[in-house]
Amino acid sequence: IVTETQLFGVTPPHYLTTWNNGTNLVVEYTDIYLPAGASGYMIVKGIAKGYERANETYNHAYAEASNAGIKDAHLYFEYAIPNANVTINKTLSAFGPFYPGSTIGFAINIQNNGDSVNNLQIQDIRPNSQCIIPGNNYTSNIPPAQLQNNGNYSWTLLGAFNQGQTITINMTGQIQNDPICAAVGSYTNLGNYSYVLGGIAHTGSASLVFNVAPIPYANIDFSKTILQTGSNKGDTISYKITYINNGTTPLSNFVISDFRPTTLNYVTASPLPFNPPIGNSCANGCTLLWYPSGVLGQGDIGEIILTGTIK
Against a cut of 0.70, is the pTM above it? Predict the structure, then answer.
């Protein structure tokens, strides 16, 4: 693209025309008067077009006069359009699971695998939610960030972002300690960059998605059900203990106890208790204990069936 032409050392009038011959752009001055022994020159400035690298090109110049014929000259040169190759990715620098009240960390990593760029702009855009509170703690290998009013960070890299250079930014935030924040669904954190190179604007972005889980809590519900009843001495009595995990987290290492009254002889239980009565050891009442093995997951149900006789 021709941006400027100048003609020096010749006498006006002269006329400028530009046209394309199908292969090349032609800049032509006509009606030039050049006295004997005089010299002149022409300057043409322009910007290379395109987005890819070029190998080589020729620049042709010629002069034609009615009384001097045609003279020409050629200039061979190479050129390349600046070509940066900037990549960006987002990662979590603090790992979940995340709950209301948790601290969460984000990281932006940007690398230049191409030509140097100047005035690189970087921005971190927090999830659009009142549940994510931006923190003031961040570390990076670039100048200090400016915290925007909407909670986003933005940086401007002063000077060049050179080939092979990597920028790493770590920052933290806080999840609002409110159960509703676990019901929002997915949260998205976005990082982007922008710069201008060779008169062309370049942008890129990367995002990560995370979830906030309900705060784990234990909640075992118990019930007792009579399976067989009686009213006379020697009658068999059978009942069932049912326990269920209605909490939000699996449970382990818990204890179940059952108090045996003095009016009821122990016969058996399934599963057996940790401390089954021996002889008359439960004559005056006793407490039977169970230590369920393994994990009782959310919604899992366990049962104990006990049998005795009326004294």
Answer: no
